[in-house]
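[audit] Reproducing an earlier prediction to check determinism. Same input, same settings, fresh worker. If the tokens differ from the archived copy the diff job will pick it up downstream; this log only records the rerun itself.
[audit] input (267 residues):
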Amino acid sequence: MRTALLGFLLVGCAVEAPIEREVPLARVDLRTAIGPADVMPVGVAIAPDGQRFVMDEQWGFYRIDGDRAFEVIPMAQMPVPDKPMQLPITDVVSLGPNQFAFTAIGDGYILDTAAMTIRQHFCYLPGDDGTGPRIITQRTDALAFDAARQTLYAQPVTFDAAGELQFAQVATYDRASGADTAWFDMDRNLAATGMVVLSNGDVLMGQGDRLLRFDPQARTATQIDNLARFGIESIDGLALDPVTGALVVVDKQTDAMLDLEITQLAL
């Protein structure tokens, strides 16, 4: 299947082959680790030292140690941000020790777990400083951080006042200032729920159980793999473990966090 829209290419596989099951490197049952039966993990962040964190839409921010979860900030006790925040929180990435970026409706924020502060850092609407009225709604469920280039990536999907889908984009932001630096129009049906930047600058994006590669230079988003063979139903968070090199996936349909060996993937 080949679909072109606004100068971008979305390539996928038209024929589905029978699924041959593969075993992930590791799997953590987040329902057991966090406790409540109705967990909703929406993102995974891995610090430079390999420490893992999961954001749960309902319950808050957790540190994951082995198969156990330790509460960092319960959702009910999230620090009050410097500007109004519209829930839910939709994804999270590590920026460094005690520093995280996360997304909510319309905006991205910086969370400092040492100072216990939240401040608004970037907006999804080009040129918007976050203070004026909005007649549209923008949501991104996928956030990534390119430490080598000090760039944040988000994948905003825009809806009009009636809730009708208008368009989808990939946006980049300067880590220090939060200023938007580039906008890429994408296939309007692209709504990634997980994202991570590879060392070469390409971006892996997850939608459903599909894994796509976005090349900012070629301006293409190409389906490269399907993770259903690992038992993954929904790629709701992506991160690379800097210690083990594994691709870590959070799936809120199965309430699991899985480690995948990079060589097992069609990258």
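[audit] rerun output stored. Observation attached for the diff report: Residues 30-34 form the longest helix (5 residues).
[audit] end
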